[in-house]
Amino acid sequence: MISPNLSYIILIPLLGLGLVCLVPADKTTLIRRISSVTVLLPFILSIWVYAAYDHVLGGFQFIQNIPWVVPLGISYHLGVDGINSLLLLLLGATSFSAVLISASIKERIKEYYILLLITIIGTYGAFLSLDIFFFYFFHEVAAVPVFLMIAIWGSSRREFAAMKLTLFLVAGAAIALVGLLALYLATGLHTFDLIQLQAQLASHPLPLEVQNCIFFLIVLGFGITLTLWPFYTWAPVGYGEAPTAISMLHAGVLKKMGAYAIIRFAIQLMPQAAHVWMPVIAGLAIVNIIYCGLVALTQRDLKYILAYSSCSHMGYILLGLACFNMIGLNGVVFLMFAHGIMAALAFALTGFVEDQTKTRNIDELGGLLKCMPFIGTCFMMVAFASAGVPGFANFVAEILVLLGAWDQYRWLTVLAVFGLVITAIYLLKAIRFGFQGPLNPKFANVTDTRTLLEKFPYVILLALLILVGCLPTVIVTHIDSSTKTIIESMQ
Q1: 50 vs 89, 99, 385, 434, CA distance in Å?
Q2: What backbone torsions phi and psi does residue 300 show, to the nearest 5 degrees?
Q3: With contact defined as beta carbons under 8 Å apart, do 83 and 260 qualify?
């Protein structure tokens, strides 16, 4: 098989961005078509990368390494293993669906797609980078447009949401930057190259005191992105007030960048510190699961229910990270994918309901399944997936995390299972009040998705949830070689 060129995954949407910038603002149809094509092609390439990756051989593959600032050890270094090749697939499916769903945007369309494409380019670059400098650079490229998009196209509290999200994520990014620079200086290699750092630290680990300090900074900084309790409060208001596409991308993909960075730069490079800190992370993970789940129970806004639910489910990722075994870490990577697809689909469906009814309050809704059978059915399937019903990808992922945690954190695992019960309660409540019962007369004229094109983005995401849920080996065998290497380094 011909090896894919990873740079094309970044360059194609970058080319599309340039074309959108050149198109007059009144050519909205052309802008939408260019944007759709330039996210569809990287999605196809991400499928190719995933299929071409040799999980038997393992390690990083399809590597491209171009020196950039040699004295500082900075290079344009791309590559994939079983972990980030799966995250590329997650981003490809989510970004393509988000662009299609953005057809509902009617104001400042050109600026909207420019910012959306910048976010997608930055996220692709971060997941592909094997150079810590470029990872951080692309991470910030992806984050900056989010603030603007919430402030311009968000809901009624958009200015407050954009400001709160900005303050929290900038603080987290600054803390993470201090940790990464400390790692760069402490190794003495004068390189940001991840592969060189892995090789050096495997044979010559940093002193435990130094590891503990750097590990804490990296986990805290990127943990804020991952909505680690108690630093999660930016996420519900941020997702609740964001335009639909940004809610999909941030909750579905960008949040997972925090977990990905913790795996790559904290756990993999400083395993001794991980043994010290991860029991604390496991305890905080349960607080994430239970506390955010209980808060979700009190919400009446459908989007805020999903936002708190997303924060709650990040606790399972954190719990899996603290397991120190392959089952748990496989579950983490699996859940990053499964939750990303599920969260993106849930926010997309909620956005459609809001566009049609002009409300997200479940007390004002009711009986929508009668006039929105497709959207209502999809929402119920999302609820089943989120609650861990067998047949969906989330079930497999959560089972792996819980099995991985059972031997080390038995009582915490019991509480984590209780968190799934809480999830089922608040999502069934949302279905009961929003989609079941008598139809509110003022919504008698709302419409369901009418064309195959309108249904297509929802079908893509739902099909992935079911496919991976029924054939989990498609993912597990793919990521197994990469997680095995990380676990072996921690022994």
Answers
A1: 7, 22, 24, 38
A2: -115, -15
A3: yes
pLDDT at 491 (0 to 100): 64
Residue with tokens 């790692």: 183
Its pTM surpasses 0.85? yes
| CA–CA distance, 432 with 145 (Å, rounded to integer) | 36
289 and 426 in contact (C-beta within 8 Å)?
no
Burial grade of 54 (CB within 10 A; 0-12, 13-18, 19 or more): exposed
User: Token pair 């929402």 is at which residue?
Assistant: 379
Find out whether 234 and 164 touch, Cβ atoms under 8 Å.
yes
pLDDT in tens, 339-381: 999 999 999 999 999 888 888 888 888 888 888 899 999 999 9
Decide: 337 and 90 in contact? Cβ < 8 Å. yes
d(CA 458, CA 360): 19
Query: Which three-class secondary structure string do you get for the chain?
Result: CCCCCCHHHHHHHHHHHHHHHHCCCCCHHHHHHHHHHHHHHHHHHHHHHHHHCCCCCCCCEEEEEEEEEHHHCEEEEEEECCCHHHHHHHHHHHHHHHHHHHHHCCCCHHHHHHHHHHHHHHHHHHHHECEHHHHHHHHHHHHHHHHHHHHHHCCCCHHHHHHHHHHHHHHHHHHHHHHHHHHHHHHCCCCCEHHHHHHHHHHCCCCHHHHHHHHHHHHHHHHHHCCCCCCCCHHHHHHHHCCHHHHHHHHHHHHHHHHHHHHHHHHCCCHHHHHHHHHHHHHHHHHHHHHHHHHHHHCCEHHHHHHHHHHHHHHHHHHHHCCCCHHHHHHHHHHHHHHHHHHHHHHHHHHHHHHHHCCCECCCCCCHHHHCHHHHHHHHHHHHHHCCCCCCHHHHHHHHHHHHHHCCCHHHHHHHHHHHHHHHHHHHHHHHHHCCCCCCHHHCCCCCCCCHHHHHHHHHHHHHHHHHHHCCHHHHHHHHHHHHHHHHHHC
Neighbours of 60 (CB within 10 A): 19
Q: What is the pLDDT of residue 454?
A: 87
Query: How many alpha carbons fall within 13 Å on the CB side of residue 166?
Result: 14
